[in-house]
Amino acid sequence: MIQLTETVIGEKSCFKFYKPFDTKKMFLSSENKKWVRNPQTATLNIVNVVEYYDLKQCIKDYEDDDEKDEDEYYVRSLEDYVNATEHTYKEGLFLLLSDDTNCFLLSDAKLHLVIDGKKNYELQGFFSPAGTRGGYNFTTAIFFQITPSILKSLAFASSIKLSYEVPDDKTADNSSEKSGFNNLDISRFSKFANAYYEGYYIEHLGTPEEKATYERECQIKKEENMRKAEEAKARRVAEEAEAATRKAKELAERKAEWEAADPVGKLTLLLKRHWKWVIVLLFILYFIAIW
Questions:
Q1: Roughly how many angstroms between the first and final C-alpha of the chain, as a whole number?
Q2: DSSP three-state, residue 5
Q3: DSSP readout, 74-142?
Q4: pLDDT tens, 32-62?
Q5: Which of 68, 121, 153, 183 gets the most CB atoms within 10 Å of its CB?
Q6: pTM of the predicted model as reported, rounded to 2 decimal places
Q7: Non-local CB neighbours of 133 within 8 Å, separated by 6+ positions
Q8: With contact defined as beta carbons under 8 Å apart, do 25 and 181 qualify?
C-alpha cells in the first residue's frame, strides 16, 4: 500500500511517500561499485516543501575566502557557509530524485518526462543541496518543480518514460553516462502520483470543482480497468475452451487410429507415441546385459 507521511519542516507540513518509488537503477559505473559500500538505487518521491538556501552564494563566499590557519589549511569549509546561511522553506510541488547517500547525482542534471508518448516535459533542477563527494558538483538529491497539471498527467498516465541528462562536459566519472536514465520505463510510478494527487493535492488544495472532476475521472478509470479485466477474462476463457476442444479432438483421432490398426500397426503406434520410454528401456536392458 502506498502511504503518505506528514512531517513538519519549518512550521510547514511536508507530505511525501513513506517508501519512495524505486527506479531500480544506479548512477554508479561498474568501476565505482567496487569501492562504494552498499550502493543504493535511485528513488523518486513527491514533496510539497523544500528546505532551501542560496547554494550559489555559499559557493562564491567559500571560494573567495582565503583565510588559513597556521598549518595552511582553510579555516572554513563549504559546509560552514551552508550551515551559517539563511534557510527558507519553499512550498509547491516537487519531484525528488535521490540516490540516498551515494552522492552520484550531478547538481545541474535535467529530467525529461514523456507521458503516454504525447506529453513531453523538460524539468530543470529547482534546488539541490551541497554534495559530499568530489566537491559541490555532486549531490544526493535534486528537487524538480512540477505543476498540478504535470502531477495530474502522471496520476492518470498509462505510460511514463524518464530520462536523466547532464551537460556534455560533465559525465560524473562516466557514471551518469554509463548508468544514467534514458527512456526508463517508470509507468508503475503512476500509482504513486495518483496516491499523492488524491492524498495531498485534492485533499488539501483542490477546489470543489477539482474534487468532483477527480471523482468522475476515477470512476471512468475504474470502469475502464473493469472492462479491460473482463475482456482479458473472456479471452482467457475462450483460449482455454479452444485448447480443451483441440485436445479432445486429438484424443478422438488417436483413439480412432488405434482402433483401426492391425496388431503390427498397433505396435508401430506404440513405438511412435512412446519412443522416449522405448529408448530408456533399451538403455536399461543394455546395461543389464553388459553387467
A1: 65
A2: strand
A3: BS--HHHHHHHS--EEEEEEEEEEE-TTS--EETT-EEEEEETTTEEEEEEEEE----SSSSTTEESEE
A4: 555 666 667 889 999 999 999 998 888 888 8
A5: 153
A6: 0.71
A7: 102, 103, 104
A8: yes
CA triple 91-131-169, angle to 5 deg: 105
- Residue 78 buriedness (CB in 10 A; 0-12 / 13-18 / 19+): buried
Return the H-helix or E-strand segment holding 290: helix 275-290
Q: How far apart, in Å, are the Cα atoms of 154 and each of 95, 148, 188?
A: 11, 10, 10
**Three-state SS across 182-237?**
CCEECCCHHHHHHHHHHHHHHHHHCCHHHHHHHHHHHHHHHHHHHHHHHHHHHHHH
Beta bridge partners of 91: 49
pLDDT digits (tens, 9 = 90+) for 132-163: 665 678 888 999 999 999 999 999 999 999 99
Asked if 179 and 26 count as a contact pair (C-beta separation under 8 A), the reply is yes
Pick from 91, 64, 43: nearest CA to 189: 43
**DSSP letter at 68?**
B
Query: Please, which residues bridge with residue 68 across strands?
Result: 74
Buried b / exposed e over 199-224, threshold 16 CB at 10 Å, is bbbbeeebeeeeeeebeeeeeeeeee
Reading the block at residue 40, the C-alpha cell is 543504493
Angle at the Cα of 256 from the Cα atoms of 253 and 260, rounded to 5 degrees: 140
The dihedral region occupied by 160, where left means phi > 0, alpha psi between -120 and 50, and beta the remainder, is beta
Q: How far apart are CA 288 and CA 207, in angstroms?
A: 86
The pLDDT tens digits for 165-181 are: 887 655 544 444 444 56
